[in-house]
Specification:
By secondary structure, this protein is an alpha/beta fold. It has ten helices and eight strands. An eight-stranded mixed beta sheet has the order 7-5-6-4-1-2-3-8, with helices on both faces. Helix 9 packs antiparallel against helix 10 (266-303). The protein is elongated. Bound molecules: uridine-5'-diphosphate and magnesium ion (MG).
């Protein structure tokens, strides 16, 4: 069987604490894979510094200097997790047969990669890493994630349940993914749309090897909003539906107010009119907000901004 050249891509944002541990584990892992003849010697571990503010880049340079298996990519500013992945994939795709993306904190079990390679060997172009449980996540993270996956399903978005961005992509699947010109940051929604043969590998999610989460609530919410508005137009329909319901309620309110006026209880009706003004005003604002979200998307798409700006690229070729 043909031994694949594998690139492992890690987005790193302020990961100075995790990187030495991560590099050590991946060295051991790839040593073993090389010994077992599972990957070709040209395989690489690519660390993408997503505009970190700490010593991440000097750590990466150090690691690259010590072991030619490692490569470093430094983005000029914090482009975000998805764009960092995009940068790594763009710079690796031509030099590998398959690539695996994994978070730099190694919360996702690296041993699942053996399963990834096995499925790839069997002909899968896409292998999803799926969390079999979320024991190590906080209850808050678990519940919000659950809610998010359910909500996305409801809105007709095809997502692999409990799969994040730990996956293997063959070279052609990566090319296809990169050919999607959209300024879309929701890779896990886009990959199933490619339609390549896929497989799933289950694993237990662990805790970070070091450091803290780089996804505060603010980023999580922005990410969820991005996922929804990039893939679903259902929210617009809901707004329409709510609009119709409230318009009907408005008619009922009008009849009621009119009746109060005729029967001489107009003062009593004042409160209900005020109520409806507030209610409808509120709904209008929500509707405007959601429509604005879509208009914003169109705005971003038409600008065709670069997804990342490359500053340096260590290759050890
Ligand atoms: N990350 C990134 N850019 C960012 C935020 C995060 O490249 O702006 C990386 C981070 O270094 C990590 C991965 O994305 O490798 C996932 O982040 P994290 O582990 O903090 O998220 P969590 O597991 O808490 O959801
Ligand atoms: Mg993490």
């Amino acid at each position: 069987m043909h031994v694949p050249v594998l690139h492992i891509i890690l987005p790193c944002y302020n990961e100075e604490e995790a990187l030495p541990i991560t590099a050590k584990r991946l060295t051991e892992l790839t040593d073993d894979m090389l010994a077992k003849g599972l990957i070709a010697p040209e395989s690489r571990i690519v660390m993408v510094d997503d505009g970190s503010k700490d010593a991440t880049w000097s750590k990466i340079s150090e690691i690259c200097g010590a072991d030619s298996r490692f490569e470093g990519i430094k983005l000029a500013h914090n482009a975000g997790h998805m764009n960092a992945l995009w940068a790594g994939m763009t710079l690796s795709v031509d030099r590998c047969d398959a690539l695996i993306t994994i978070d730099a904190d190694l919360q996702d079990d690296v041993n699942a990669m053996y399963g990834f390679l096995e499925e790839y060997g069997k002909g899968a172009d896409v292998v999803y890493g799926v969390r079999s449980s979320r024991k190590t996540d906080t209850a808050f993270k678990r519940n919000t994630a659950q809610l998010f996956y359910r909500g996305m399903r409801r809105m007709g978005v095809d997502l692999v349940y409990n799969h994040a961005d730990y996956r293997l992509l063959s070279q052609r699947a990566t090319r296809a993914l990169l050919s999607v010109g959209e300024v879309n940051k929701f890779l896990r929604g886009m990959v199933p749309l490619l339609g390549f043969k896929s497989a799933k590998v289950y694993y237990e999610r662990g805790v970070r090897v070091a450091g803290e989460s780089k996804y505060p609530l603010k980023k999580m919410l922005a990410f969820a909003m991005d996922g929804i508005t990039s893939f679903s137009n259902k929210p617009i329909r809901w707004v329409l539906l709510t609009g119709i319901i409230f318009a009907l309620l408005g008619v009922v309110m009008a009849v009621y107010t009119l009746a109060s006026l005729i029967s001489g209880h107009s003062v009593a009706g004042w409160a209900s009119i005020m109520m409806s003004i507030w209610l409808i005003g509120g709904v209008q604002l929500i509707a405007l907000g959601i429509v604005g979200e879509y208009v914003g998307k169109i705005y971003m798409e038409t600008k065709r901004r670069p997804k990342f700006i490359l500053e340096e690229h260590i290759t050890n070729a």
